[in-house]
Specification:
Layout (H helix, E strand, L loop, with lengths): L1 H21 L10 E3 L6 H21 L4 H27 L2 E3 L3 E6 L3 E6 L3 E9 L9 E4 L5 E14 L5 E9 L4 H13 L14
Parallel strand pairs: 6-8
Antiparallel strand pairs: 1-2, 2-3, 3-4, 5-7, 7-8
Helix pairs in contact: 1-3, 2-3
């Protein structure tokens, strides 16, 4: 039951991302600096969508004499196209976010890791095109099979997987379209004066 709920929420977020993408809006970026990461995956994702579209047209011809089967296959094929485009849209409208208190590292609707800035021990540009099997305490979020940034944390932060399993993370490798800008912005945010006591930041969705 829990798995079904997670899958349903995932699908709803994808469709919501399509709406934001069409409206040229971003999710949760108000009052924060946004850093995109989807530029490198665009051609690949639209290539997948094109392949799905070709398959849809091909199956329509092959199954033209089987209307019942054709309707089922057509629905699945169209859904596949929407799903692929939705994944890309979610990556576009859910960028990494930075404010005076925290860094949010995101990937599509699957990952939204909140890291308090005081937990950031170091950030550096580091190109990696290969990633080993998942290691304890490390989170790799490649885009286009590569990461450009490595973030080291002073203390682990909690990350929850797609199905809700907790992992404590001390190293994050992720991608950004402008990695140098991300490094500089994080360093400046860490060195900026803290917010005045008693001042609270309005929570985000």
């Amino acid at each position: 039951m829990r798995t079904a709920s997670v899958l349903l929420r995932h699908e709803l977020r994808l469709f919501a991302s399509l709406g934001l993408w069409v409206a040229r809006r971003t999710h949760g970026a108000e009052g924060r600096t946004a850093f995109g990461y989807a530029r490198g995956q665009g051609p690949v994702m639209f290539g997948f969508a094109f392949v799905c579209l070709v398959e849809t047209l091909t199956m329509s011809v092959l199954l033209r004499d089987l209307p019942a089967v054709h309707r089922v296959v057509l629905f699945l094929d169209v859904y596949s196209v929407v799903f692929v485009v939705g994944l890309h849209a979610a990556s576009v409208v859910r960028p990494h976010l930075l404010d005076a208190e925290e860094l949010r590292i995101r990937r599509s609707v699957h990952v939204d890791l909140r890291i308090p800035l005081h937990q950031v021990q170091g950030i550096r540009r580091e190109l990696r095109t290969t990633h080993h099997a998942r290691r304890l305490g490390e989170l790799d979020l490649p885009v286009g099979s590569q990461t450009l940034l490595t973030l080291q944390l002073a203390q682990p932060v909690a990350h929850f997987t797609f199905l809700g399993r907790r992992r404590d993370i001390h190293t994050v490798r992720f991608h950004a379209d402008d990695a140098d800008l991300v490094v500089e912005a994080i360093k400046q945010a860490r060195s900026a004066p803290s917010s005045p006591p008693g001042r609270t930041r309005r929570p985000s969705p």
